Amino acid sequence: MTTEPHQPAPNPYSGAPVPPNPYADAAAQQPNPYAQQPAGQPPMGQPGQPPVGQPPHPGAGYPPPPGPGLPAQQGGPGAMPYDPAYAPPYGHAPAPGCRNCGAPQAALFSVRAHVGVLVLMRFHTLNGPFCRPCGRSLVRTLTTKTLCQGWWSPLSLVIFTPFTLIWNLLAAIKFGKLPDPTPAPGRQPLEEGPPVYARPLAYVAIVPLLWFTWVIANIYLDVSGRR
Hints:
This protein is mainly alpha-helical. Helices cover 29% and strands 6% of the residues. Helix 2 packs antiparallel against helix 3.
């Protein structure tokens, strides 16, 4: 088996004749995709427009007509009635309901409690929405807790406990205006329980209030010089 010797590539700058390119004819036959198209001729890969006076060929450059079960574009030819089954799957926010029993007759309001012990203070907040019995039950429970444990620090006595009591009073008024709830299946509203004035722990507030009144009275007597 003989092997032809390797022929070196001709040097175009040597002045010797250069052999013809065997691929020149094939390259000339290939169309140039980047060449400018003549006027009136559609670009490559796109359907052309039908001649004047001739109806367009079905499916040539036009979207397919809506088939059975496929909604057409609004206002387009062959538009079909709106079908809710083809609505976009966007989620809707659920209707507000009571956090405890799920009743839709609920008000978006929070209930608060405050505990103050010397220099330590704690704040409790239960955010709604709540229905009437659940809201009033929480108001009575947290208000009693505040009346019992919310007076035992200076800032609690002057600022935070009065603010919490006023807030819960507004919450009780708001919840009291709601109609009778309709709880969700398998859930029950809270028992309202006895009112605040019928709970013995609420009267623990009398002790710090009497002490606060005694302190204010003594300060006033010392300043006025009546002692």
